Amino acid sequence: MPQAKKCVSGKKLFDTEALALLALLEFYRNNGNANINGPKNVYHCGECAYWHFTSKGEFHPDVKSYLSSADYQLRLKANKWISKFKDY
Ligand SMILES: [Zn+2]
Predict the structure, then answer these.
(1) What are phi and psi of 41, to 5 degrees?
(2) How many domains does the chain have?
């Protein structure tokens, strides 16, 4: 069994910046409420040399523009309804 990649930070690892950014956008597509203290950007880690999410600092420009898009606003509304369905 190959060892799972790990970092002392305990965070999820991404091979490239592009991959980390895509995952960050997916996060907001699927369960994203930008008002909670969620991840805002990605960074290259000096410990493991992979990429991680960070909730510090400013939103990545791509994430920021997604969060102001009509697609995101619609999904936010849809997610509210989806969370209500969980009660049934
Ligand atoms: Zn790391």
Answers:
(1) -155, 180
(2) 1
Instruction: Let me know if residue 4 belongs to a domain.
Output: no
- Measured in angstroms, how far is the CA atom of residue 72 from the centroid of ligand 1? 29
Answer whether residue 11 is part of any domain: no
Q: How far is the CA of 85 from the centre of ligand 1 (A)?
A: 37
Q: Is residue 9 part of a domain?
A: no
The CA dihedral of 30, 15, 59, 80, to the nearest 10 degrees, is 10
User: What spacing in Å lies between the alpha carbon of 48 and ligand 1's midpoint?
Assistant: 4
Q: What range does the domain containing 59 cover? A: 17-80
Query: What is the tens place of the pLDDT at every residue in 27-85?
Result: 988 876 777 788 999 999 999 999 999 999 999 999 999 999 999 998 888 877 877 77
Ligand 1 centroid to Cα of residue 71, in Å, is 32
